[in-house]
Each structure stands twice: as structure tokens, then as C-alpha cells.
Amino acid sequence: MSAASTETSAPLPTAGSRVFFQGAPGVGCVGSGPITGDDPVQKKQGKVTVKYDRKELRKRLVLEEWIIEQLSELYDCEEEEMPEVEIDIDDLLEVNSDDERASKLQESLIDCYKPTEVFVRELLGRIRGMRKLSAPTKKGL
């Protein structure tokens, strides 16, 4: 066909030639070598999520899903088509008064052409009593 297909390439190594790398003792990537039952990285991996408050995480997830559903209705579009709207629940929880929270929310929804007062009021009611998510606490130490 073309001249490029007739060019020769470098010869491939034979099946018997292999390259092995051997690191110095104590040096290397975590998890290199065989996995043993006493590997500390393997043991800690499963415990990480246990330290978070799962009930609070579940509440937050349900709230975020509700927010997305409500924003879809306000903007009359699917989530993928929705304009960039940032509602940070932790930021709202840091604010002391509902009036300040409402004004922050109204600023985020400035581009919405539909009335947003009902959404803001419902969201403020839903976050009442929630806690700001923080880093996981160490239990049992």
C-alpha cells in the first residue's frame, strides 16, 4: 500500500529476554510484593469510612439530591444542562442568622428567572439542626 508500511522496525525481543527490576531492601512502592495478612495498609483501608458519622452523611446526601431536584425545576432543565450554581451547605451553616443565609442563597440564584423564595425557605428549614461536616474524629484512642 504505502511506503510507510514497508519500513522495517526494531526487532522485538525474544521470549527468553526479560527485564527485572530489583529495589534495595526497604525501598519501593506501598503494596509492592505479595500481599500478606499482616500488611498495615490493607488493615487500615476498611476502617477509614467508619470514623465518619454515617447518619450525618446520609442526611447530607438526601439534602443534596433534593437541592438538585429543586434546581432542575427552578431552571426548567436537567442537571447536565443546569447553569453553574454553587450552594455550599457548610458555608450556610457557618452563618448565624437565617436572613444572612437567605441573602447568600439569593445571590447564588441571581440568574434564575422563577421565584426562589419558596426554595430558599424550604432549604433553610431543612438545614436547621444540621451540623457542619468536619474531618473524621478518632474514636477509641
From TrEMBL:
Pfam families: PP1_inhibitor. It comes from the Eukaryota. Keywords: Acetylation, Phosphoprotein, Protein phosphatase inhibitor. The keyword ATP-binding does not apply. The keyword Phosphoprotein applies. InterPro entries: CPI-17 (IPR008025), CPI-17_sf (IPR036658). GO terms for molecular function: protein serine/threonine phosphatase inhibitor activity. One of its GO terms (cellular component) is cytoplasm. Belongs to the PP1 inhibitor family. This is Protein phosphatase 1 regulatory subunit 14C.
